[in-house]
Structures are given as C-alpha cells and as structure tokens.
Design a protein that fits this description.
By secondary structure, this protein is an alpha/beta fold. The chain has a single domain (4-254), classed as Metal-dependent hydrolases (TIM Barrel, Alpha-Beta Barrel). 41% of the residues lie in helices and 17% in strands. The chain has nine helices and eight strands. It has helices at 19-28, 41-53, 73-83, 105-122, 134-143, 162-170, 187-195, 225-236, 240-254, and strands spanning 4-9, 31-37, 57-61, 88-97, 125-131, 153-155, 174-177, 201-203. An eight-stranded parallel β-sheet has the order 1-2-3-4-5-6-7-8. α2 (41-53) runs parallel beside α3 (73-83) and α3 (73-83) runs parallel beside α4. 49% of the residues are buried.
Length: 259
C-alpha cells in the first residue's frame, strides 16, 4: 500500500469521530504518519498527548492567528515548554489572517514573530496559516530570516497565487495542499499546484475541515488525504504512487523526522 501522509490535521476538533476512530480509518487507508496540529494551549497539549501515545502521530503546538489576542506572555511561555516535549516537530499553526477580524493585525504579527522565535529555540519547523495576507506573511517570514534550506517553513493549506508561489518556492518553503485543491472552483489553485517543485510538495487534510470531493458536506478526516494526493498527481501528470513516496520523503525533511 502506498505511504500516505497527512501533515496537518486537528484530531481533537472532529465533530463525530474520536481520536482512535480517526487513526483506525487513517491506517486502513494507508496513512503512514500524520501531524496533529494545535491552535491554542489546550489543543496543543492534546496534540502532544496524542503523539506520545501513538507511534505514527507527531505534534505541532501553536496559537492560531485568529486567537492571537490571547498571546499573553504566560501563554507563549507555555507553548515554549510544550515545544520541548518529545515528538513535537513544529510550532504552529501561526501566521496572519485578514479574512476574519477576531484578532488585530498588531496582535497577529506579535504572536507570529514570537512563535517563530519559539521554533528557532527548539529547532522546529514553523507551520504557517495565511489567508488573504500573502504579501504581509511572506514579508514577515523574510524579515525574520526564515529563508533557505535551514529554515523549515510549511505553508499550510497553500493558497497563494502564481506571483506569490514564485517567491515562496525561491525561499525554499514547503507547500502543503489540502482537500480544497479537489473543489470544482479551484482551477487557479490547481494551476499553482503545478508550479511547486516535487521536493517542496506536501499533502494534508486540515481535518475535520476542507473535506475533499466527493465527500464535501461531511466532516473530513485523515483517511481522505489520498484523494488530495490523487488530484495533485493528475494535475502534475505524474504517478500517484511515486508522488506519495516523494511526499513522504519531503515530510521527513520538513519536520526533521527519523527515517
């Protein structure tokens, strides 16, 4: 069975399935490893616990930009402690979101820079959420020196345009595509997916959100990540099994995983 990878899911957010049920379905579908991503202190703690209990689960700890107003010194200090836990491979999701206004741009930037600092201290990848803010997001990462092969930046649920992609590829960042690449109205995103080099391509579900076609309308879960991989393979004109092997290798590099 081809080795599938879900680099970004939220096991504790699912509406109907518990963690064990999601992992059972994922393993049956061939998911070799997944990253459970925190969006606040509580979900980050849960991700750390899931990773400690399950050999194919890794954790990312962070504060979502929509909750950046909660980025007190105490919260950031707790994320710093969590980042040192075994099997934590990234900080995030963090970043900028101009689609929703639940946190001010100033608070989002402060929280983003602080979490980049945490990632640096622990030599972890940074998982970036960016929505309607690509110019500002890329500029901030560049300003923080997150450029080149030693800066392990993962652009979660990538949605940049062609011009942005030229820039993000040049910076050596990983581009993770989710179920929305399968949507009927996602032709521009599929065009961008053709531009990302093989060595910078990742797959994710963002479960329980962004459920891929043909399951739209139902909650997403990690077992559906193969649908995204298959669509990427079609768009790129490549063999899906070979692409799965490439994505697995990329995931190991992006998150500094063993093997």
């Amino acid at each position: 069975m081809r080795p599938l990878v879900d680099t970004h899911c939220h096991l504790g957010h699912h509406f109907t399935l518990d963690v064990a049920e999601q992992l059972h379905a994922a393993r049956a579908a061939g998911v070799a490893l997944l990253v459970d991503v925190g969006t606040d202190v509580d979900s980050s703690r849960a991700a750390v616990a899931n990773a400690a209990a399950e050999p194919d689960v890794w954790a990312a700890v962070g504060l979502h930009p929509n909750d950046a107003g909660a980025a007190t010194d105490a919260v950031l200090a707790e994320l710093d402690v969590l980042a040192a836990a075994p099997r934590v491979v990234a900080v995030g999701e963090t970043g900028l979101d101009r689609y929703r206004d639940t946190a001010s741009p100033v608070d989002q930037e402060r929280a983003f820079r602080a979490q980049i600092g945490i990632a640096r201290r622990h030599d972890l990848a940074v998982v970036v959420h960016c929505r309607d803010a690509w110019d500002a997001c890329v500029a901030l990462l560049e300003d923080e020196g997150m450029v080149g092969p030693d800066a392990r930046v993962v652009l979660h649920c990538y949605s940049g345009d062609v011009a942005t992609t030229v820039r993000t590829v040049a910076n050596g960042w990983f581009h993770s595509f989710a179920g929305n690449v399968t949507f009927t109205n996602a032709a521009p995103l599929r065009e961008v997916a053709e531009l990302v080099p093989d060595e910078l391509l990742l797959t994710e579900t963002d479960a329980p959100y962004l459920t891929p076609h043909p399951h739209r309308g139902a909650p997403n879960d990690p077992s559906f990540v193969g649908l995204t991989l298959d669509r990427l393979a079609t768009v790129r004109g490549t063999d899906p099994d070979g692409l799965a092997t490439t994505v697995l290798a990329n995931t190991r590099r992006a998150f500094a995983l063993p093997g």
